[in-house]
Amino acid sequence: xKNGFELIDYIVFTGYALLILGVGLxxxxxxxxxxxxxxxxxxxxxxxxxxxxxxxxxxxNISAEQFIGxxxxxxxxxxxxxxxxxxxxxxxxxxxxxxxxxxIEKGIYTIPEFVEKRFSTNLKxxxxxxxxxxxxxxxxTSVLYLGALxxxxxxxxxxxxxxxxxxLFAAAYSIYGGLASxxxxxxxxxxxxxxxxxxxxxxxLNTVSDGxxxxxxxxxxxxxxxxxxxxxxxxxxxxxxxxxxxGVLLGGMWVANLYYWxxxxxxxxxALAAKSLKEAQKGILLAAFLKLLIPFIVVVPGIAAxxxxxxxxxxxxxxxxxLLNIPSDGAADKAYPWLIQFLxxxxxxxxxxxxxxxxxxxxxxxxxxxxxxxxxxxxKQYIDKNADDRKTVTVGRxxxxxxxxxxxxxxxxxxxxxxxxxxxxxxxxxxxxxILAIFxxxxxxxxxxxxxxxWGALLSIPIAMxxxxxxxxxxxxxxxxxxxxxxxxxxxxxxxxLLTMGIIAAISWTQNKGADDEKGFAIQKKTFSTSTSxxxxxxxxxxVLAFLYAFFW
Length: 553
Description:
Layout: H1 7-28, H2 38-43, H3 50-61, H4 64-76, H5 83-106, H6 111-118, H7 121-155, H8 159-177, H9 179-208, H10 214-224, H11 247-250, H12 252-263, H13 265-272, H14 277-298, H15 300-309, H16 312-317, H17 335-340, H18 347-383, H19 389-410, H20 420-428, H21 432-444, H22 450-468, H23 470-475, H24 489-512, H25 532-552
Helix pairs in contact: 1-8, 1-9, 1-18, 3-9, 3-13, 3-14, 3-18, 4-7, 4-15, 4-20, 5-12, 5-14, 5-25, 6-7, 7-8, 7-18, 7-19, 8-18, 8-19, 9-10, 9-14, 9-15, 9-18, 12-21, 12-24, 13-18, 14-25, 18-19, 21-22, 21-24, 22-24
């Protein structure tokens, strides 16, 4: 096997790129003399069907963070990291049943706009500025860095040129076309993502079994690394601090998932663009079923790489090239790019297409949502309240371009991160508990006040840092052990959420003397009624998950 692309690989990749750009630009077109309005650009004219919503949710979610970062965690931790994916399937059902009906009923463009309707313009602005900063300096930059890392490992492309190439590819159709271009191309991207990812899984397991096939390889890695197949880690496991046993099922993992899938603009924006609530809910269910498959595409290859690297006989089959860019305990994120090197011609191009599709689709989604929040919640609120559709769409496009430029400049500074997926989860977890607390109480407790929500937003980060760092960390010259050095970050997220909710509830009760807030939502039981097919599908997802956890407990 050769460590590089052959002609067929370049043909496969070029064909993919032309297809995505062609479809994206086709969907960007407008009739002669017409101009896209804000709803066209930011919400795809609220016309997305269920299958476009479901595939677009997965395409926006699965990125280099999963292919590179989660495979790296599979190498280092094992199947337990799959809880982020499998618990997300249940979370999607919760979002579809209990959150979406309220969001769609209110007719919102953005999550900050919902905050304004429930609380105040001040709180909306605080959260809008926060989200723009988070998307630009964490999400966009991390996707660009991890994508460039993969291109550098697989093809030897210079990191900076890889970042520029990925940026231009995403910009080519997403900045001009808006959400419609992104959502429709996502349906194609997911096909490449799934089949290309499965090709890498097959190759990895076939290599382990010395050509005896996928199932034989799966049996071998289970036999040689049984510790990598424990979903619930005990305290003796070195990775317990990242995935704290039963606390994963009962604690902070719910905070991470509910925040991400329910109140994250670049995810929920697809559902807000649905033809109807029922169409959005069907799309949510499709995404939940696809979530069940993702660990077999991104985690199992990481475990297979671990087995190969630690078995001299298997490693020797790969020859001298097997020692190039080899993953290790300190460089786990090299696992997926390392495996792609050994795919045969054609399949290597397909696997690289899958990775590129994941990167570009997520990047396009983040750019569109960043521009949506900035344009609708900051620009139109404070800079030009009377901006017409032409100016609004133009500002959205300029915002996307600036966000991409900043991300490309900052991305190279992320070098040296090991297990990037865990790193991103941990530091996003400093801010997500406060936001989740505000939204949960704002949605379902009519007594929640604006003043209490603002105090919750402001105090949640110090509370999170109290658990994470604490005065001991500062006083000890930067050792940063905090009051709770042995408390896993997922548990920290759970406790931060509960404390923040307690603060919001106490201030709300004191302020209104137990009375309902004037902006509280009057929610009726029928708001959450769903179709029979939704209920049956939801139970099917939960039964599959119960089996998976019981089998791999």
